[in-house]
Amino acid sequence: MFGSFPDDLLSQFKQDYAERMEQSFADKDRMECNKPQADVGGKSSHVVKACYPGAPEGGKLIHFGQKGVKGSPPKEGESEAYKARRAAFKARHAKNIAKGPSSAAWWASKVKW
After folding, report:
1. Could you tell me the pTM of the whole model?
2. 31-62 pLDDT, tens per residue?
3. Residue 68: which H helix or E strand, with range?
4. CA-wise closest residue to 86 among 101, 57, 108, 60
5. How many helices (H) and strands (E) does the chain have?
6. Are 72 and 82 in contact (CB under 8 A)?
7. Which residues of 13-46 are buried (b: 16+ CB within 10 A; e: fewer)?
């Protein structure tokens, strides 16, 4: 119906697509320690290369945060409902937050809540 693409154009498109997909995912080697960034290709909203005492050589890659959930650090004049959401998250995940920077809950608490 629409015709076909020349083989060289199709192979170039596939190569460009593969390169873009490779760049979109987090590369632990190129990331800075303890600097969260958006997780483009995964199910989580953020990813961080966690460097802490006792971490594996080169840091630990941690994916955290649910995509689409609106969370932000406390702001002056925020609603009581939002304060309650924040308190509920921190209470629900308190056991995992206490594990420190080796856990996804700790990073989510720090960055998103």
Report:
1. 0.73
2. 999 999 998 877 899 999 999 999 899 899 99
3. none
4. 108
5. 4, 3
6. no
7. eeeeeeeeeeeeebeeeebeeeebeebeeeebbb
